[in-house]
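Hi C.,

You asked whether I'd gotten around to modeling the 484-residue construct. I have! Everything is below, sequence then structure, no commentary in between.
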Amino acid sequence: MLTITKSLIAAAAFTATLAAQSASTSANNVLKPIQTITLASSVKGRFDHFGLDLKHNRLFLAAEDAQAVLVIDLSTNSQTGAITGIGKPHAIAYREDTGRIYVTDGEAGSLKIFDGASFKPVGSITLQKDADSIGYDINAQRLYVVSGGKDAGQSYSLLSVIDTTANKKLQDIRIEGETAEAMALDVYRPRIYLNNRSANRVDVIDRWQNKVIASWPVTLGKDNVAIALDEPHQRLFVGCRSGHVVIFDTNTGKELQALPIAKGVDDMTFDAGSKRVYAIGGGMIDVLQEVDGDHFQALGSVPAGGQAKTGRLIPEINRYFAAVPQASDAPTSVKVFEPQNVPALKAAAVEEKAQVHAPLALKLDMQTLSSHPDLRKLGLHTTPPGGNDSVIIANGNTSRLGVKTSAGDFEAVKDGKTYCARKTDGSFYNMKMPLQDASGRAIGILVMEIPFTSAADDAAAIKMAEGIRSDLARQIPDRGALFR
């Protein structure tokens, strides 16, 4: 009997070893470790988030306890400098066109601004204690910063709106909760999804109205801190330190499911090219695959080392970086991984754009997206005064302004009727119709996307779209008014 027991134990141990080797092999097929960047010996303690200056091949890392932002050269994968004078750095943003680096300082309760070439301080914006997470709207050049809450002795937090061109605070948005965490910005809708950790919910902020418009309870996980967004499929990934990624439908605010990950997550990234979610915490990197908007699978877990909890994916160079605090058997470092079996990154299409200034059109677009939160996208097309071509004159994603109207858009509305096409990849109705003014004259093309969750069928989608068009038409005296 004793011999049999030993045999069973040995067999179980052998099976466990094979399973561990298999999991490791599987993980390496997803995220392969390729290098370790050893940091300066003076750098010890905790890390927070990364920032990126891809133009100059630089990665920035918030070293909290070292009171500095470390500078890593991506061409050599080595630390080349440090930005000092920061009490407790948390989050970093780099604005490429001005060469400015923005760092939240939790200790000082401020947003500190540095010159990207000399690293000298060039400004500071006073916030509240525990200035932490950020979100950047690259089109409006606005930075959204969380501060206040428990560390400031308050039961509420603030989300501050920063104009990074004038380098001044525009407004504070009150968040009812003493601990606000990471946020994700919607590009086509004027929204922010913010983790309200103390209330265990996601707050939805309207960037047009600058106020909280909805709150979605997180019931499938606890301690929601990390966040990532798949905008084309309207899926929000909420990372919880309880060891879960909770998936929301951003059209309805409903939880769809929760997937297990390592406990202690602090950073999460969605890569649209590979449709993968990277979550890091507790020294592990979990990789999840989005099969479609309703189906997901775990691809593997990769050890990052120590108590690593923050990381940065850079799809442009196909690398993932993880910050690893010092341990008894290893120095402070950044681990470099190469994502495996991902599609080659497509070069961004270069589109010719006309100069467009249509204040009323843009105002109407944003107002409509704000008042119809179930709309995915909205675009107004027409020919500007003195122009020869029809172009996009208003869009929730203002980077699209000035792009020529496509042949497909013209074809869709040539009969004057409302065009409706079901798009299963994304689960929405693609709507196109003549844009009208208050007198009913056709003055351009109106394009919008309505999710399946807002319209039961084509007829319902058409009715909704034409109702929105009528609301817009009443506010447009004539085509020229859109540009005045």
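If it helps when you're writing up: The longest helix spans residues 2-28.

Thanks,
B.
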